[in-house]
Write a sequence for this structure.
């Protein structure tokens, strides 16, 4: 886990640039949830796993709750609110047909068919995005989380072409003026960089669950898929779940309980 800790410390160092300012001009005010910088003690309490994953109770994820999780995620990670087809998304909602185009039965219940499903990076076991990235800006950690090194990204968008889930967004313009609630503890991006959900790796490093899991209030089970006693394994053991586009061969780590 030494390499993982080194990645966390590097991210913390990058995030520290400009942290001392309560207001950073065009970036706006820091959100209320942004506390002080993590200490060494916080990193010693970090959460670890052999294979992180989540199970989403889709029936509990109402459009309002999906929006709550989206807002929490985007505020936490300085995701810009850009209108139109240049929008950036880490967490969003979509219909059953869009979410599971290869799992569409002929006689689905109307409630399931018209349900909105929360979407995010699937943190695949065999991520195509990692295979096609020419600079290793996209890489996979030992615990399964697929990360983005924003500084190594050259904007080729091969990873976007390789991802079968549309979970990556490209910054066609400077995203910083579109950040409404700047969080000084997470780095902002620049034009020409791809970004996506990172399973809140920076929060796991200091002992906190992903912000969407907290915002969901029990509608998302998160934990170690390799641990049969974890919350996520308990949820999968007790409920039927499916994954997005299983035929793509990437083996997603995000499960949907119907």
């Amino acid at each position: 886990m030494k390499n993982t800790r080194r990645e966390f410390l590097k991210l913390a160092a990058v995030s520290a640039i400009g942290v001392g300012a309560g207001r950073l001009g065009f970036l706006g005010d820091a959100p209320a949830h942004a506390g002080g910088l993590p200490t060494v003690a916080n990193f010693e309490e970090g959460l670890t796993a052999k294979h992180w994953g989540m199970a989403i109770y889709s029936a509990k994820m109402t459009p309002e709750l999906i929006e709550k999780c989206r807002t929490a995620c985007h505020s936490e990670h300085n995701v810009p609110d850009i209108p139109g087809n240049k929008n950036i998304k880490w967490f969003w909602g979509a219909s059953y047909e869009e979410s599971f185009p290869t799992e569409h039965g002929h006689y689905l219940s109307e409630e399931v068919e018209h349900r909105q499903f929360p979407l995010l990076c699937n943190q695949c076991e065999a991520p195509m995005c990692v295979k096609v990235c020419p600079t290793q800006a996209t890489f996979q950690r030992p615990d399964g989380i697929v990360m983005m090194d924003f500084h190594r990204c050259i904007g080729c968008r091969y990873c976007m072409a390789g991802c079968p889930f549309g979970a990556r967004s490209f910054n066609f313009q400077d995203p910083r003026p579109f950040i409404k609630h700047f969080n000084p503890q997470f780095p902002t991006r620049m034009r020409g960089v791809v970004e996506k959900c990172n399973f809140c790796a920076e929060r796991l490093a200091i002992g906190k669950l992903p912000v969407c899991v907290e915002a969901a209030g029990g509608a998302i089970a998160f934990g170690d898929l390799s641990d049969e006693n974890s919350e996520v394994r308990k949820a999968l053991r007790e409920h039927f779940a499916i994954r997005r586009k299983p035929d793509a061969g990437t083996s997603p780590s995000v499960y949907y309980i119907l």
